[in-house]
Amino acid sequence: MIGLARSVALARICLKRNNICIAGGCLKMKIETAFFLGGKMNKRRRSLLLLVLFLFLSSTGPWTHVFGDGEKAATILFTHDMHSYLLPGTHRAEGTVTEFGGFARLKTVIDREKTKAPNALVLDAGDFSMGTLFQTIFSTEAPELRLMGSMGYDAVTLGNHEFDYRSQGLADMLERALDSGETLPAIVTANLDRTQETEGSVKALQTALDRYGAKDYMLLERNGVSIAVFGLTGYDAIESAPMSEIGFLDPVERAKAVVKEIKDIEDPDLIICLSHSGTWEDPKDSEDQLLAKEVPDIDVIISGHTHSVTPTPLIQGDTIIASAGENAGFLGRLDLLETSEGNWIVEGFALLPVDATIRENRETAVKVAAFLEMIETEYLDGFGLSYDQVVVRSPYAFTEFKNFAKVQEEDPLGSLIADAYIHAVKEAEGDRYEPIAVAVVPAGVIRGSIAEGEITVSDLFNVSSLGMGRDGTPGYPLISVYLTGKELSAIAEVDASVTPIMESAQLYTSGLEYVFNPNRLIFNKVTYLRLVEEDGTRVVPEDDKLYRVVCGLYSGQMLGAVKGKTFGMISLEPKDKNGELITEFEDHIIMKENQEAKEWLALVSYLGSFPKGGDGVPVIPALYQMPQGRKTVEDSTAFGDLISQPNHVYYLLVGAVSAILLLFVLALYLVKRRREKRSEAEQR
Asked: What is the rounded average pLDDT of the residues 440-446?
């Protein structure tokens, strides 16, 4: 006997198609003719028919209906963007603590759902790593992939953060996972360039992927349904993996080719794409919705990368797109039925919470505890720290991470981190300290926030967890570069102009104060800029003078790319203290006693330096409870405000527009003259 929800769904579909479904099949005839013998079917009659169909479908044995000659169904359990949340994360606000995620609880939810649907697929759409201290043993122990294997995952794809430790780091992780001898999920990744001639770390990755058995796609069969699963890394994800070293192929073109190959060779019932591409609010920029348009033969897209949550799946043509959020806070469940046309429809969808109400799976909890011990001995002991060590108490919560950088404005969390960078350089250099004029922190390198209450070492690592340094240890190091006063103005212009189209590019600073009008011409939005010295004095930066700037390694590399990205309109060229252009940023890493000064350790050091409360724990001061006027947005459309204080970009753009207008007028004049001459010739 079929379930209640399915009976109602089938009855509704029969009504919609004006068919009567019986044991012998769906009769292609008008319902009002067959059932009521003429006349239009009113609301009461339709309701009565729906009841009859429901009772019939609920009591019928072997039967055939609108879903084809034999009903085919599939269930997908899925995650994405879990970011190494092997242990639960916490939200703390207004005295209330809520927990989310944790692999031991996730395993319990997976097992519960597999009891209900034994043939369910368990899939992940990438970025299963990088985001907590567990990533520090990513390359040496492969905790995420090994645990996903033991939790029953069938397949995963690779997100951009799997490449954070470069090709060698990912290669080492895959090798360690294989060496464990444990059950592992399949890896499907269709647009890695596996054909390029390689050496060194990229060759090591190619070898590891081959040994692992990574493929473009895999074929599975569940309960008589043949299913093809393939993986993609999307455009924005590729842009977000500058340390990957290995090449990527165009994701949409590869999807077209792989889906054609799947259909021609395998001809499965269901095609699933594990896409680390994401969805955006604006459909015209939403990569996975565009993918569904370009490759309509994909039946289901499990969409990662943008940390999206779909309360109900997105439908693009015949493609179903589903997302379940970040950090293992939910397990997505998608139940599907095949129609007689061979398409799939959503029979059921749920975002199943992974929270404190879920009992931990004991076996998984023991494995996680063992990995935690490895973090302590292999990483934290080297800094004299421990995972749960309390560093500071925050009497208030900073901007919740899901809302961070969503608005173009100063944010106290960004200011706190920028101040921490300067403090760390002072601490590292001691008597050798050369004054830092400005610290710069892009939103894209901030990965978490600070809640109200006690803040631990692990909490602060999560805020600045990205990357690794030249020393091969996790965490981006701080670097020191020099920029001219004119280039400091360019930093503010980049922040003002680029942020509206790329929120990860929003900048937070220490030592710089500026005002901009978002309605002015691009790269000519800043109307006021001052350097703020340690005593609070505001000074105008000198265009040609060199000023020392501190930022993270990745951020410094991105600053160096600004000139190319803006086609030379904005020049930001990091230099050394002698004014020579920097080509190797790792030569400018800040060192503290033969160790790299890491971004996350800068936070630990700075917050640990605050005055202590009555219990001996440092307390974050009220200074960071609200903006300090470092970045001010003056939204004005007054004509004078739009054209005052023009810079070289203004003149360049105005000149270009004027030239175009002049050419247009000249073209009109020439056309007019030609017509006049033709008219004169005809009159003769």
From this structure: 96
Are 113 and 331 a contacting pair, CB within 8 Å?
yes
Q: What is the mean pLDDT of residues 496-502?
A: 89
Same domain (yes/no): 418, 310: no
The pLDDT of residue 68 is: 43
Q: Give me the sign of the Cα torsion angle 253, 554, 602, 541.
A: negative
Helix axes 362-378, 143-150, angle to 10 degrees: 170
**Quick check: 568 and 656 in contact, CB under 8 A?**
no
DSSP annotation string for 203-252 = HHHHHHHHHHT-BSEEEEEETTEEEEEEEEE-HHHHHT-TT--S-B--HH
Q: From residue 323, give the alpha-carbon distance in Å to each of 104, 286, 444, 474.
A: 21, 13, 21, 29
Question: Distance between CA 53 and CA 263 in Å, rounded?
Answer: 36
Contact yes or no for 516/404 (Cβ under 8 A): no
Residue 636 DSSP code: -
Nearby residues of 6 by Cβ (< 8 Å), 6 or more positions away = 337, 347
Angle at 173 between CA 169 and CA 177, to 5 degrees: 170
Lowest mean pLDDT among 70-84, 617-631, 632-646: 632-646
Name the amino acid, one letter, at 603. L
Indicate the SS3 state at residue 163.
helix
Task: Kindly report the backbone phi and psi dihedral angles of residue 426, in degrees, each rounded to the nearest multiple of 5, phi listed first.
Answer: -60, -45
If one counts the domains in the chain, the total is 4
Look at residue 153 and tell me whether its pLDDT is greater than 70.
yes
**CA dihedral over 260, 262, 265, 268, signed as positive or negative:** negative
Note whether 8 and 145 are same-domain residues: no
Clarify whether residues 292 and 212 are in a common domain. Answer: yes
Tokens at residue 648, please?
């070289």
Alpha carbons 435 and 245: distance in angstroms, whole number: 35
d(CA 539, CA 528): 11
Domain check: are 425 and 531 in the same one?
Answer: yes
Q: Which domain holds residue 560?
A: 390-633
Q: Which amino acid is at 459?
A: D
Residue 385 in any domain: the answer is no
The per-residue pLDDT for range 633-675, each reduced to its tens digit, is 999 998 877 877 777 565 565 666 777 777 777 777 777 777 7
Amino acid at site 473: T
pLDDT in tens, 395-436: 999 999 989 999 999 999 999 999 999 999 999 999 999 999
State the DSSP code for 499.
G
pLDDT digits (tens, 9 = 90+) for 515-529: 999 999 999 999 999
Whether residue 374 lies inside any domain: the answer is no
531 and 614 in one domain? yes
Contact status, residue 132 vs residue 84, Cβ threshold 8 Å? yes
Query: What integer best gives the mean pLDDT of the chain?
Result: 88
Do 282 and 253 lie in one domain? The reply is: yes
Whole-model pTM: value is 0.83
Locus of tokens 């309109």: 569
